[in-house]
Amino acid sequence: MSAGVSGCGPRMRARPLADATPRELRPLLDEEVEHWGRELLWDFSEVSAAVANGLDRGSLAGQLMDAEGRPVAYCYYMVDGGRAVVGSLFASEAVRGRGLEESLLEAVLAEAQVQPGTERVECQTLFSTTSAADGCFRRAGFASRPRHYLVRELGQLRDAPARPASSWRLRPVRREDLGLVARLIHGSHVGSLDAALNMTYATPGHCRTFVETLVLRSGCGRFDPEASFIAERDREAVGILLASRLSRTNGHICQLSVAPQAQGRGLGSVLASACLQALARQGLETASLSVTVGNRRACSLYERLGFRLHREFAAHAWVRPPGRLEVPA
């Protein structure tokens, strides 16, 4: 895609993201950091730095929109192991609402779907400055399901008494636990809606990569060992919670998983409550998480724990025909 767009405003020109340099994209990336910090309580600076590094290495694909020679919108994707993952779709505030994001996204999806060796394309639109993005995925043949980004205030928990004793023993997550944690996450997602839409949960190997990214490489904020737990009963690990810090004031529940044999017994509530109290003791002001709307049990749990809707988005996935996505109802 490399074309000019004219109208009443400045002339727009789309070009491959790979043609841009980190230096010329920096003002737009800085605006994006400020935007998501304000909108999602998420310090996006590490992601922004990773985007700049990817540009420098030539490992990012995508599209960029210029206005009079200045980058004003971009969308990128990464390819790994036969899967393309679409990242943020961001437009400068001055040009939002003009269809630029949709044009970029449509071009990125068309490009990703024909990439040699790519059998699957995925995206979660949390980091999109247009709500119209979801329609682009529908028109491109993606399966989609709504998700919610939830936030809870922590102030009232700072002086709360210690959590009551339960029949589960909670202990910190250690480095040597990562394989165990990955197996628990995988086992809790077999046949789930989330596993159908996100290859992260497809195999124990994918889950291990996901866990290492969260814990060792700050893949979703900085890992918080004080607010992350493994739950055990009779020396068997039956639940895990991994937490991070998205900013100086906001903690995040990255993953909460309970083994099938322990589900429906209140363990999820025990783990989440322990995490929230730990975050509050550290002086954080809020906690956040994301959840698939179709996961009714999880949505009910988080509502009971005081989380409230902060932003709506969606998860999207496409597989190359004749393959088919088996998405649970």
Give the termini distance in whole angstroms.
Answer: 36 Å
Number of strands: 14
Q: Quick check: average pLDDT?
A: 94
Total of DSSP H or I helical runs spanning 4+ residues: 9
Runs with pLDDT <50, length 5+?
none
Helix/sheet category:
alpha+beta
Summarize the structure in words.
The chain is α+β, with helices and mostly antiparallel strands and 329 residues long. It has 2 domains: 4-141, Aminopeptidase (3-Layer(aba) Sandwich), CATH 3.40.630.30; 151-312, 3-Layer(aba) Sandwich (Aminopeptidase). The chain is 33% helix and 30% strand. The chain is built from 9 helices and 14 strands. The chain has helices spanning 22-40, 45-57, 100-113, 133-139, 178-189, 193-197, 204-216, 267-281, 296-304, and strands at 4-5, 12-16, 61-67, 70-80, 83-91, 120-124, 143-153, 169-172, 222-223, 229-233, 236-245, 250-258, 286-292, 308-319. Strands 1, 2, 3, 4, 5, 6, 7, 8, 9, 10, 11, 12, 13 and 14 form a 14-stranded mixed β-sheet that branches. Strand 4 (70-80) and strand 5 (83-91) form a beta hairpin. The longest helix has 19 residues, at 22-40. The mean pLDDT is 94.
Q: What is this structure, in a nutshell?
A:
This protein is an alpha+beta fold and 329 residues long. Helix content is 33%, strand content 30%. The protein is built from nine helices and 14 strands.
